[in-house]
Task: structure prediction
Amino acid sequence: MSIERAVSAFAGVMILISVLLTQLVSPHWWWLTAFIGFNLLQSSFTGFCPAAMVMRKLGVGRNAGGESCPR
Result:
């Protein structure tokens, strides 16, 4: 999985979790949704994405070329 797809998947999961928490726990969880949206927007302009940096350190995206095993 590429870094871009991993970040999109992570953002989507986090948004769904925040919407669920908003409905079940407190309406204040909308702030998490707003933070995720703001972070996606600023990363599209600046190219700085903390989630991508963490995922790279965890090894996500190393096999994005279609290889089944790292060499």
